Amino acid sequence: MGLFSVNGLAQDNKSIEIGTLGGISYYNGDINPGKPFVQPQPVYGIIGRYNFTDRWAVKVSLSHGSITGNDKFSKAVPNRNLSFKTDINEIAITGEFNFMKYNTGSTMYIFSPYLLGGLSTFQYTPRSLTGINLRNKGTEGQIIGYRNRKQYKNYSFALIFGFGFKYSLTKKLGFAVEWGMRKTFTDYLDDVSTTYYQNKVKGLSDPTGTHLKGEQRGNSKTKDWYNFTTASITYKIDLNKGQNCKKLKW
What we know:
The protein is mainly β. It has helices at residues 71-74, 134-137; strands at residues 3-5, 15-28, 41-51, 56-70, 83-98, 111-127, 155-168, 173-184, 225-238, 247-249. A hairpin with a 4-residue loop joins β3 (41-51) and β4 (56-70).
């Protein structure tokens, strides 16, 4: 047994991939408690991926998406009739683990399912379906300080987890599809969390005009979620300077 060099059989596979993504987004919260892919909206963005090995990678993405919800469709709470649409601008960093060896441009390792996990920070703006900024209206009494409530922040953080599938299209182009769930640290993606603050006043807070001050409007004990389900195409930039051979033991 000895050590000798085999050209091209073992090499450093570090690389960078840059590209674009597009797909759909949806939300789970007070207006849509649990159903996936209800009223999906578009999402798009750009990504950069650094491949450490053929198993591990880290990805940074900048995305813009929308989510929406409507009691008329979800029927989560009878006689509430709330609705919203929220734009989300997200910066995310995720780690990826390939179940199988994968390398864009390889003739052997051309596909793999993968797991992902990471963090994001995002800015969001809940609006009515007619475009009114709901946060600025204080639909649960935030503007007037009802029960010492203050206006909620229009940014937050999220934990990301999900799975995907990668496929090498050419020597330089890679394709991936991904389902990524975001568990946020806010309950106001939909502008719904606590109680009504007026007595049977029809408006943005109480569209039906049938609720009393202090009646439950949402569930403040649970936070909102959103999902990006996307497809992406990336271009590979190889960081290897030639074939970096490693010695193999036989």
